[in-house]
């Protein structure tokens, strides 16, 4: 079994049932996890910010930094190794905020809204999510069965 | 209970080793605008640990030196004054970093967070002051020293602290204060004060989670440090238990007239700097291997 780590502004896909794809310390950033149970192909995106218009050059160099460029790339990368859109299950986690949710610091909420909008526009349902609150999350995707597990440092353990 | 704790915590501060004399000497030498390069090189080379660290960092893309730096003299010549001050400071400060059990932080995670805050403080200072504020880089590197001191006490009272944070809407800082009678920012300020740092740094560290509690008219440094710290925490650049359990102070937006979009642009810049500063971040692991 091998573990594939997804960094910040990064995405990884796999079609190997032995793999676990994992990302650590999602604060306001979001992990988008997709899985095709029939092809047993899946992937994970860990994006930072909602809109690539913040920095177009960066978005070209690294589409995984932003939701609007990273999500399409995640899907395409999965299609390339055998996934099909109609079978894909989508789960998201992250988008935490600091306390009081002062408008200025609402990057987490903004990220959650951006993801929902993108999937809504593309007629894709988000099967389940664990978003908001004020703690960091670690997310794992098990390629054998598509199981997605979310943890935090104080022992929270949730299967999405 | 609380009083006994504070007493024990203060005793622990007194036991923290002195700030590296070499770093202080380098700062002193550089105070003279006509300082001699030879003198600077001699001061640095006298300290082997710092010299080794400097050589590990000097070829980092973050400092933009185009040629290979392989000795202290090259570093002093090619890095330039502002960068050599930063490199020496970072090289000297790593020795204080160790695993902090109360916050579940490894030395490496805390160091990476501290470097990120230092880099972000520089980005924000350039924007707010239109110039560099060297002291802020140092303040960024040591702003969480209080956690290193407070760790074991937080560990002993973890249940109580997490209960306040999870169920009673306390910020982590407020919970530390309620349970331990002090907080890691205040303790960090005391460490900086023991090290005879300028009052501005002491204040910036003491108030880095609550700059709104400072007297009106005080320097903007604490606000910059606060904003840099929040940005890093939001981006997951901390492995600590306390995570995002801190207060968001919305007035910072009008204070610096920074909008959402610009803030997000600064975050993108931070990640660019972090990618270029790998050698700086790797310093702590490297130090511990020796």
Summary keywords:
heterodimer, A: alpha+beta, 5-stranded mixed sheet, B: 290 residues, mainly alpha, Hypothetical protein af1432, globular
Map the helices and strands.
The complex is a heterodimer of chains A (160) and B (290).
Chain A lengths: L2 E4 L3 E5 L5 E7 L3 E7 L4 E7 L8 H6 L5 H14 L8 E6 L12 H15 L4 E6 L5 E6 L4 E5 L5 E3 L1
Parallel strand pairs in A: 1-3, 6-7
Antiparallel strand pairs in A: 2-5, 3-8, 4-5, 4-6, 8-9, 9-10
Chain B lengths: L1 H13 L6 H11 L5 H9 L2 H10 L14 H8 L1 H13 L13 H23 L4 H9 L2 H12 L1 H10 L4 H9 L3 H11 L4 H8 L14 H14 L17 H5 L3 H17 L1 H4 L1 H7 L1
Helix pairs in contact in B: 1-12, 2-3, 2-6, 3-5, 4-6, 5-6, 6-8, 7-8, 7-14, 7-16, 8-13, 9-12, 10-11, 12-13, 13-14
Give an account of the 3D structure.
The complex is a heterodimer of chains A (160) and B (290). Chain A is an alpha+beta fold. Chain A has a single domain (3-159), classed as 60s Ribosomal Protein L30, Chain: A, CATH 3.30.1330.200. Chain A has 3 helices and 10 strands. In chain A, the strands form 2 sheets. A 5-stranded mixed beta sheet of chain A has the order 1-3-8-9-10, with no helix packed on it. In chain A, a hairpin with a 4-residue loop joins β4 and β5. Chain A is globular and about 45 Å long. The model of chain A has no long low-confidence stretch (mean pLDDT 94). Chain B has helices spanning 2-14, 21-31, 37-45, 48-57, 72-79, 81-93, 107-129, 134-142, 145-156, 158-167, 172-180, 184-194, 199-206, 221-234, 252-256, 260-276, 278-281, 283-289. Chain B is built from 18 helices and no strands. Chain B is globular. Chain B starts with a helix and ends with a helix. Chain B has one domain (2-12, 98-289): Hypothetical protein af1432. The longest helix of chain B is centred in the middle third of the chain and has 23 residues, at 107-129. Chain B has 290 residues and is mostly helical. Chain B is 67% helix and 0% strand. The chains are: A alpha+beta (160), B mainly alpha (290). The A-B interface holds A 8-9, 24-29, 48-49, 54-55, 58, 65, 96-108, 110, 134-136, 152-154 and B 104, 162, 166, 169, 171, 230, 233-241, 243-250, 252-253, 260-261, 263-265, 267-268, 271-272.
């Amino acid at each position: 079994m091998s573990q594939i780590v997804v960094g910040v502004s990064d995405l990884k896909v796999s079609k190997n049932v032995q793999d676990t794809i994992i990302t650590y310390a999602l604060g306001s950033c979001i992990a988008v996890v997709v899985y095709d149970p029939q092809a047993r192909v899946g992937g994970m995106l860990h994006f930072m910010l909602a809109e690539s218009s913040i920095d177009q050059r960066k978005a070209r160099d690294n589409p995984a930094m932003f939701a609007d460029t990273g999500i399409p790339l995640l899907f395409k990368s999965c299609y390339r190794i055998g996934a099909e859109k109609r079978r894909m299950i989508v789960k998201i986690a992250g988008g935490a905020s600091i306390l009081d949710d002062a408008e200025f610091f609402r990057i987490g909420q903004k990220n959650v809204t951006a993801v929902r909008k993108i999937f809504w526009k593309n007629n894709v349902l988000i099967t389940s999510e664990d978003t908001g609150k004020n703690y960091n999350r670690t997310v794992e995707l098990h390629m054998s069965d598509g199981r997605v597990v979310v943890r935090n440092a104080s022992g929270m353990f949730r299967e999405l | 209970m609380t009083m006994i704790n504070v007493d024990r915590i203060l005793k622990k501060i007194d036991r923290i080793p002195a700030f590296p004399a070499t770093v202080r000497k380098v700062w002193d030498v550089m105070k003279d605008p006509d300082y001699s390069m030879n003198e600077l090189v001699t001061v640095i080379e006298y300290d082997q640990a710092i010299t080794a660290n400097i050589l590990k960092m000097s070829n980092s893309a973050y400092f933009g030196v185009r040629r290979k730096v392989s000795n202290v003299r090259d570093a002093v010549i090619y890095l330039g004054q502002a960068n050599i001050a930063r490199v020496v400071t970072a090289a000297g400060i790593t020795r204080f970093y160790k695993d902090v059990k109360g916050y579940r932080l490894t030395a490496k995670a805390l160091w990476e967070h501290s470097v990120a805050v230092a880099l972000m403080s520089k980005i924000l200072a350039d924007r707010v002051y239109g110039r560099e504020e060297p002291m802020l880089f140092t303040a960024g590197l040591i702003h969480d020293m209080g956690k290193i001191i407070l760790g074991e006490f937080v560990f002993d009272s973890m249940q109580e602290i997490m209960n306040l944070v999870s169920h009673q809407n306390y910020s982590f800082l407020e919970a530390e204060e309620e349970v331990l009678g002090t907080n890691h920012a205040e303790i960090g300020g005391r460490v900086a004060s023991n090290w005879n740092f300028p009052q501005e740094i002491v204040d910036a560290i003491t108030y880095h989670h609550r700059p709104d509690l400072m007297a009106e008219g005080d320097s903007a440094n604490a606000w910059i440090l606060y904003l840099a710290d929040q940005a890093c925490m939001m981006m997951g650049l901390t492995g600590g238990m306390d995570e995002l359990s801190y207060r968001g102070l919305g007035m910072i937006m009008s204070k610096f007239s920074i909008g959402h979009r610009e803030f997000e642009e600064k975050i993108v810049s931070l990640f660019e700097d972090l990618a270029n500063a790998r050698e700086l971040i790797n310093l702590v692991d490297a130090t511990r291997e020796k």
